[in-house]
Write a structure and sequence with these properties.
six-stranded parallel β-sheet; 237 residues; Bifunctional isochorismate lyase / aryl carrier protein; 9 helices; alpha/beta; Rossmann fold; Isochorismatase-like_hydrls; isochorismatase activity
């Protein structure tokens, strides 16, 4: 069954960010960007010309561009099409058979992955369940995760919670995610801020990345983050 149409709603922004319980600061040497489930199957439910998606999509693009400039790893979750019933499991009881192979599985054109981006095949709400996401983050020396995409109160919130339970600090971006409704969106922000992460906004994420970016780093740093950090330290002496 297709995802039912989602009515437009006002995207939460800075005034809606709950008070933080942690004083975490985003660090360009420690973070990765998660672009969660931005596949056409899920995005077709929205009017792309209206909020929340019109603004959320532009904000994800802005964060992705900032990460590219700073050589921060960009990770996509992508559910496969035509999932075998043994893989789909009881998810089918809630959502039917899910995506079909082809257009459904494609990421929206505005965020199409490039060769250097990492694609994780995803099977459940959380990006960490039945995937190697935690191992990938460890490989790149990353223990912070910027969470963007859809849907805020499902995969995004639960990925943030799973990140926390894996000692990865999640930064859930309030205005770079979209949900079924404003109430559910706000609920996800509130839960994350109270229990497992820091809620932030796009402007602050981009500013933190730009403030911490190392101009001397190239994309080669992604393949050897330890050597890159030593190089930065040496240049600072």
């Amino acid at each position: 069954m297709a995802i039912p149409g989602i009515a437009p709603y006002s995207l939460p922004g800075r005034p809606d960010v709950p008070e933080a319980r942690v004083d975490w600061a985003l660090d360009t040497d420690r973070c990765a960007l998660l672009i969660h489930d931005m596949q056409k199957y899920f995005i077709d439910a929205y009017d792309k010309t209206a909020e929340p998606l019109s603004t959320a999509l532009a904000n994800i693009q802005a964060i992705r561009a900032a990460c590219a400039r700073a050589s921060i790893p960009v990770i996509y979750t992508m559910q496969p099409g035509d999932q075998h019933p043994s893989r789909r499991g009881i998810l089918a009881d809630f959502w039917g058979v899910g995506l079909t192979t082809g257009r459904d599985t494609e990421v929206v054109e505005e965020l199409a992955p490039i060769e250097s981006d990492i694609q994780v095949t995803k099977w459940r709400y959380s990006a960490f369940q039945r995937t190697d996401l935690r191992q990938l983050l460890g490989h790149f020396g990353r223990d912070q995760l910027i969470v963007t995409g859809v849907y805020t109160h499902m995969g995004c919130m639960l990925s943030a919670a799973d990140a926390f339970m894996n000692d990865v600090a999640p930064f859930l971006v309030a205005d770079a995610t979209a949900d079924f409704s404003r109430d559910e969106h706000l609920m996800a922000l509130d839960y994350t801020a109270k229990r497992c992460g820091k809620v932030t906004v796009t402007d602050d994420v981009v500013a933190a990345i730009e403030a911490g970016a190392h101009p001397a780093l190239s994309n080669a740093a992604l393949s050897n983050p330890v050597a890159a950090s030593l190089d930065v330290a040496a240049k600072g002496r």
